[in-house]
Design goal:
Bound molecules: S-adenosyl-L-homocysteine
Distance between the termini: 44 Å
Structural class: alpha/beta
Largest sheet: 7 strands, parallel
Number of helices: 7
Radius of gyration: 21 Å
Number of strands: 12
Amino acid sequence: MPATPAYPPHSAPRLYIDVELSDGAEVRLDGSHAHYLLKVMRIKEGQPIKLLDDRTGEYLAHVTMLGKRDLILLVDGKTREREDVPDLWLLAAPIKKDRYNWIAEKATELGIAKMTPVQTQRTQNTAIRADKLRAHMIEAAEQCERTALPILDELVKLDVLLESWPSDRHLFFADERIHESGEGSFRKALVAHDGPAAILIGPEGGFSDAENAMIRALPQSIPVSLGPRILRADTAAVAAISLWMAGRGDWNG
Ligand code: SAH
């Protein structure tokens, strides 16, 4: 006899809804949400669904009405408060679409607060599909039990970004050229620099000399190395976020 799943079953679908939720609220779903629940998950009346709103937390709901292309959920109650997110921004020059989507997904899992696409001299791909990028973030948050989503900024030019850089935020600049100088230990930089932070990663071709100088001229910028090997931009982003999380984030390590 199959075991009765504990309520709610671990496999209850988990969805991000772009409205503020509360206990007892009724939520009507249509479009891609409804398609997923009706056609992919073959959801039945009464079945539990977890919802997150990126505003107040996570809720348990159940299906009260099934239509052909829509359905209604009743929110039973809050299961978790919205999580605290470490104060880290990722500033990453766009790279090839699939790899950039991958960065958005992994950065969401790792727990950044904001992602900013940065246009640099060697940025090839400036046609950012914000909706697609955001969809990758949402999917990662839904799958990985997150109750918060990173903010996704619009594409900003590097010089504009640096001109208006907040005075109280460190900018850890991932510079693949600093290693040879024997400086740029990320670990030491993290020990010395507490507080709001951001990580800056260049495109496939790296930053130009002029850009490198411009970034270094910013008082809040701290050039850091990710080791003696050149990494692809997507690897560099994940490695740098992980290092920061372990040193200054909430990995308790
Ligand atoms: N300049 C190289 C590689 C660019 S790698 C080229 O011409 O192809 C893309 C980005 O990843 C860099 O701009 C940098 O931000 C980051 N990166 C890669 N390896 C790194 C390392 N070992 N240390 C610090 N940053 C690194």
